[in-house]
Write a structure and sequence with these properties.
single chain; alpha+beta; eight-stranded mixed sheet; two-stranded antiparallel sheet; 3 helices; 10 strands
């Protein structure tokens, strides 16, 4: 993310959602841990782990979105779960995701976000910043796999897991004209909870479903914010 490593350091658990099934989301007067050097306040009742926004944002003025590439830092590619017992890792098996596979994940994420906004038709997807444009910048904070990578395992041994693993991402929405950060978000989720064979094809499909879920939350949150769903602005 272009604003530096501060976002990942502050994000312990993606996406801004300005509404909640049980209670409406509102912009509070409490500074957010996601704020950093920006004037961001916590959003109460988000449908993600953490969400924050700048007060007095004219959300209705945004009708376009620019989707930057998802950043997957090298340090997140070792996807061995915390506390993993070495005795459960077979000889020659690895938990490290290749850069090639990471690039596939990043491409899938962007495709799902673009597809969601194009399908909804209330935001135009653009390829350059400017007036009325929100720039979406996202970064993976953590990945954990449920099994070592398929290409490092015994090819004659089938492995079954309840899910492919989990992922935590953080991101921000930036005004496309001023470059000012208007919102940040962070969220961690598991893939589909269903016992199935653990392989590259099914794991990528699980990741795609997760990305689609995040894309839907992002779109719905922005649509709701444009309609005034965040409520009264925080006192600045």
């Amino acid at each position: 993310m272009r604003t530096g490593p501060g976002i990942a350091a502050m994000a312990l658990a993606t996406l801004l959602y300005a509404g909640c099934e049980s209670a409406p989301s509102t912009l509070t007067t409490e500074p957010s841990p996601l704020s950093g050097e920006d004037d961001l306040y916590a959003i109460d009742n988000p449908r993600v782990d953490l969400a924050a926004a700048r007060p007095n944002v004219d959300w209705a003025s945004y009708d376009k979105i620019l989707v930057d590439d998802l950043i997957i830092p090298d340090e997140t590619l070792n996807a061995e779960p915390e506390g993993q017992s070495r005795s459960r890792t077979g000889l020659g098996e690895s938990w490290v995701i290749s850069r090639e596979d990471a690039d596939k994940l990043a491409a899938e994420f962007r495709d799902e976000v673009v597809e969601e906004f194009e399908r909804a038709e209330d935001f135009s997807v653009v390829d350059a910043p400017g007036p009325g444009v929100l720039v979406l910048q996202t970064q993976v904070v953590d990945i954990e796999l449920s099994a070592p990578t398929e290409d490092s395992r015994d090819p004659f041994k089938e492995v079954y897991t309840e899910e492919a693993g989990s992922m935590t991402i953080a991101g921000q929405l930036v005004d496309g004209e001023s470059g000012q950060v208007v919102a940040r978000f962070a969220d961690g989720r598991y893939t589909t909870s269903m016992w199935q064979e653990n392989n590259q094809v099914r794991n990528l499909a699980d990741a795609r479903r997760l990305f689609s879920e995040w894309a839907g939350l992002l779109h719905d949150g922005l649509a709701n914010a444009r309609a005034g769903g965040l409520g009264a602005a925080a006192a600045g």
